[in-house]
Amino acid sequence: MSDISAPHDKSSRPANAGQFKTGNPGGPGRPRKMTADISRRLDEIAAEEAESIVRALVNKALEGDARAADLLLSRAWPKRRGRPIEVADFTMASPADCVAAAGGVAQATLRGELTAHEGQALGTVIDMQRRTIETAAMQDQVEALEAKVAKYKADLK
């Protein structure tokens, strides 16, 4: 085996090897104005030609071009992120009610009545209600314990 010093051995290199000298930030980089000029010019072109582009797209869609029609309609009516979901009137007053509701949502999702996204959203609402119920129950327990402690202290006096 030959004796080759490791290329990453810091002791074999000068202290500032591979580093920029003090005061040199690493070069000028890309001029800032260049990006702004390009963006401005593209905006000008779009403003000048937008009407003719849209008109051509409408004409293609009217001629039966499905891609043009899809592009136009997707811009006119963007895809909805969600839809209102009709849910039976259901009161969730206890953690057990939340368990039953979550089971119903899971079954509806598995049957295909709800999308996975809708099921997840409803699950989040159910979980929020469960946490609210549990927090209220803990508050009642804390208040009951505080009352017992106050009564105990009063009995000691």
Structure write-up:
The chain is mainly α. Among the domains are: 32-76, no CATH class; 95-156. The chain has four helices and no strands. α1 packs across α2 (66-76). The longest helix has 41 residues, at 116-156. It is flat, with a radius of gyration of 34 Å. The protein starts with 31 loop residues before the first helix and ends with a helix. The model has no long low-confidence stretch (mean pLDDT 83).
Layout of SSEs?
Blueprint: H1 32-62, H2 66-76, H3 95-111, H4 116-156
Helix pairs in contact: 1-2, 3-4
Short description:
By secondary structure, the chain is an all-alpha fold. It has helices at residues 32-62, 66-76, 95-111, 116-156. Helix 3 runs antiparallel to helix 4.
Features:
single chain, 157 residues, 64% helix
List how many beta strands DSSP finds. Answer: 0
Low-confidence stretches: none
Our Rg estimate from Cα atoms comes to 34 Å
Mean pLDDT: 83
Beta-strand percent range: under 5%
Name the structural class. mainly alpha
The percent of residues in helical segments reads 55-70%
Order of helices and strands: HHHH
**Could you give a short account of the major beta sheet?**
none
How many helices in DSSP terms? 4
